Amino acid sequence: MSKIRLQAATEENESIILKWSNDPVTRKMSFNTMTISKKEHAKWFSFHSKSPSSRLFIAFNDQDVPIGICRFQRLNSNTWETGINLDPEYRGKRLGAIILHSACRKMKKDYADCKIIAHTRPENIPFRSIAKQAGFIETGTTSVNDQPAIELMLT
Fold it and tell me: What is the mean pLDDT of residues 38-67?
């Protein structure tokens, strides 16, 4: 298993996260497919990096290179929604499940009884696979931004 280190995302990570967010595959698999402007991202990052209802973890490989991000957004007192995005150069290397599993384990340590869910487009097979490898099960279908979505829950 590859060694992954997680830490809270900082302003130092903001530009690389924007770059990953605007990757064409990321945009295609997102519920919002529009390119994200630097201004929009700065506002999003500032809120999510400081809000007690949000956690942003940046993942580093064993060479201390940032390779992905895992975010959590509190939906209610006990439920958090997660999402993950990897540097395109590190996709397909079985790191997504390691990052997601590690980040969820950290959340469960910090919020013992929390429920963690995720939503994805039905065609986002890579994320569905990553989530299942990290311990999620598909619990049904729903919609996000008026688009079909699969809901997953950590077991």
Answer: 96
The Cα–Cα gap between 131 and 101 comes to 8
Give tens-digit pLDDT for 120-147: 999 999 999 999 999 999 999 999 999 9
What are the residues facing 154 on neighbouring strands? 136
Bridge partners (DSSP) listed for residue 20: none
The domain limits of the chain are 5-154
3-state secondary structure of 82: strand
Cα atoms in the Cβ-side hemisphere of radius 13 Å centred on 43: 4
CATH code, residues 5-154: 3.40.630.30
- Give the C-alpha separation, 147 to 155, whole Å: 25
What is the C-alpha to C-alpha distance for residues 84 and 101, in angstroms, rounded to an integer?
Answer: 11
pTM to 2 decimals?
0.94
Rounded distance between C-alpha atoms, residue 81 and residue 71, angstroms: 8
Nearest to 59, CA basis, from 1, 3, 109: 3
The contacts found for 41-44 with CB under 8 angstroms, 24 or more apart, are: 41/14, 41/17, 42/14
